[in-house]
Amino acid sequence: MTHRKKVLEYVWIVLVILTVFAYLLGYLKLINTSLVMILLVTTFIKGQLVADYFMGLKTVQTKYRLLPTGWLVIVLSLIAVAYYLPVATTY
């Protein structure tokens, strides 16, 4: 087995574990404001793994790697604001 194939298998396993973790939190209704932040961080990690290993951006110039990273940060930040904004204004 080549080294690259082995690395991709490990990355895939990490992606599956993080996805199952997120699914179980939702299924068991264990979501609270702290866990939402953990889910957003794990989603960022999953996005970076996909971009780096499955889109092949790990070895390209930094400016090309920053495009999907920036997009991911913006989207996840907007999700965080949308989730936390109603909580902050509740009386």
Question: What would your notes on this structure say?
Answer:
Helices cover 81% and strands 0% of the residues. Helix 2 (33-54) runs antiparallel to helix 3. The protein contains 3 helices and no strands. The longest helix has 27 residues, at 62-88. The radius of gyration is 16 Å and the shape is flat. The chain has 91 residues and is mainly alpha-helical.
What descriptors fit this protein?
91 residues; mainly alpha; 3 helices
SSE inventory with pairings:
Blueprint: H1 3-27, H2 33-54, H3 62-88
Radius of gyration: 16 Å
What about the largest sheet?
A: none
Sum up the overall morphology in one term. flat
Helical proportion?
Answer: over 70%
Spatial gap, N to C terminus: 59 Å
SSE sequence, one letter per element: HHH
Number of separate helices? 3
**Helix-and-strand structural type:** mainly alpha
Task: Indicate the mean pLDDT.
Answer: 90
Summed up, the domain count is 1
Query: Strand percentage, roughly?
Result: under 5%
Q: Stretches where pLDDT falls below 50 for ≥5 residues? A: none
Report the strand count.
0
Short recap of the structure:
With 91 residues, this protein is mainly α.
